[in-house]
């Protein structure tokens, strides 16, 4: 949790934004006659290599970078991020900002650390979309790549959630499957690395019965015809009790017709439900489960249970910065079994009627049964 909120405060800057609102927007309102230039270290970029875009803005405090997949808005002087509009992986960017004032140029560099033609090829723009700035307010450049036969590397997970910060947070004892994919003109080759060691040579990487040793940085390498693309995923593992159930337990068994109410709770961070951060627990179910009473709250109720409601449910915990699409998410599963009560007339009686606790080890006992 600490790492996530450090990220929010530094990169999203919502709290800092509230504290600095007056001073920043006094400067921002007086920014006039701004001018922009945008140049790339190379406009033709090989797959898997890095490229740096340099935006020079005169007398500008707030700047937005916009690429083929989304946009990032930053305050230039302090270089913290305000908005990230759901690019698939913002960790591939390294953004730096130079110092400046209304009378001098302020420079921001955006480096794409591993250029992926399917994701990064196209038009890039830096601009100021604020209502108080006049003059030239944007600059453009285009990035292309030689044909390589490989593009669009992605990591997906099931049943977990990968965030825009390329993190996957899991609880102990859960199981997860990571999948790496890329588009190749032929057959892609895949390897997974963790801590400098090879952990798989296939596109899929199962993580079963998760424990704390499985946390760390996982890197997928996808290659084709001598060209390689990489994608990183940071896996974080928390204690299973991070999400608690009431009644407690890791599974529930019901008989048809029974009713149960299940509450899930999480010890929320002190920033939750303040300054636009929303934290909540809610329930859903994995595939092939008929949810009669879906819940968007922390309490889930099964009324008059049926066999069709048996399956794996999960309580999901989310933290959302409601304005700027930042999410932090994890879950805990709860298998629910629904049994059909036996017909009393079909119950088999066991004879003789013996107290099994009185039978000594090694003794021979013969039982017979009848309806």
Total beta strand runs: 26
CATH architecture of the largest domain: Sandwich
Number of helices: 3
The tally of structural domains comes to 3
Question: Low-confidence parts, pLDDT < 50 over ≥5 residues?
Answer: 1-33, 346-351
Summarize the structure.
This protein is mostly beta strands and 371 residues long.
Question: What does it look like?
Answer:
The chain is mainly beta and 371 residues long. It folds into 3 domains: 2-143, Sandwich (Immunoglobulin-like), CATH 2.60.40.10; 150-237, Immunoglobulins (Immunoglobulin-like), CATH 2.60.40; 240-344, Immunoglobulins (Immunoglobulin-like, Sandwich). The chain has helices at residues 2-12, 14-29, 117-120, and strands at residues 36-40, 51-58, 62-67, 70-75, 80-84, 93-97, 105-112, 122-127, 138-143, 150-158, 167-171, 176-184, 189-194, 197-200, 204-207, 216-224, 227-238, 243-246, 252-255, 260-266, 277-285, 299-302, 311-321, 326-339, 349-351, 368-370. The chain has a 5-stranded antiparallel β-sheet. It has a 5-stranded mixed β-sheet with strand order 11-17-16-13-14, with no helix packed on it. β3 (62-67) and β4 form a beta hairpin. The radius of gyration is 28 Å and the shape is globular. It starts with a helix and ends with a strand. Mean pLDDT is 78; it is low at 1-33 and 346-351.
């Amino acid at each position: 949790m600490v790492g996530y909120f450090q990220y929010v405060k530094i990169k999203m800057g919502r709290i800092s934004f509230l504290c600095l609102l007056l001073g920043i927007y006094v400067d921002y309102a007086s920014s006039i006659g701004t001018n922009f230039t945008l140049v790339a270290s190379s406009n033709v970029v090989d797959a898997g290599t890095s490229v740096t875009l340099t935006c020079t803005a005169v007398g500008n405090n707030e700047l937005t970078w916009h690429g083929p997949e989304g946009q990032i808005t930053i305050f230039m002087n302090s270089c913290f991020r305000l908005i990230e509009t759901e690019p698939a992986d913002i960790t591939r960017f390294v953004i730096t900002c130079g110092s400046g004032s209304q009378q001098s140029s302020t420079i921001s560099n955006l480096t794409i650390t591993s250029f992926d033609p399917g994701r990064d090829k196209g038009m890039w723009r830096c601009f100021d979309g604020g209502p108080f700035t006049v003059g030239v307010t944007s600059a453009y450049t285009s990035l292309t790549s030689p044909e390589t036969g490989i593009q669009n590397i992605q990591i997906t997970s099931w049943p977990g959630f990968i965030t825009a910060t390329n993190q996957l947070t899991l609880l102990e004892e859960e199981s997860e499957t990571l999948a790496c994919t890329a588009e190749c003109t032929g057959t892609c080759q895949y390897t997974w690395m963790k801590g400098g060691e090879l952990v798989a040579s296939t596109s899929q990487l199962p993580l079963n019965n998760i424990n704390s040793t499985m946390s760390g940085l996982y890197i997928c390498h996808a290659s084709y015809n001598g060209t390689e693309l990489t994608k990183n995923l940071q896996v974080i593992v928390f204690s299973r009790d991070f999400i608690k159930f009431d009644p407690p337990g890791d599974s529930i068994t019901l008989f048809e017709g029974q009713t149960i109410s299940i509450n899930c709770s999480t010890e929320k961070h002190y920033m939750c439900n303040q300054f636009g951060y929303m934290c909540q627990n809610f329930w859903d179910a994995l595939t092939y489960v008929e949810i009669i009473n879906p819940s968007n709250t922390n309490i889930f109720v099964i009324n008059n249970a049926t066999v069709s409601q048996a399956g794996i449910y999960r309580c999901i915990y989310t933290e959302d910065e409601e304005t700027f699409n930042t999410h932090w998410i994890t879950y805990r599963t709860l298998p629910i079994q629904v049994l059909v009560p036996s017909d009393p007339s079909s119950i088999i009686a066991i004879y003789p009627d013996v107290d099994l606790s009185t039978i000594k080890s090694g003794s021979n006992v013969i039982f017979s049964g009848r309806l």
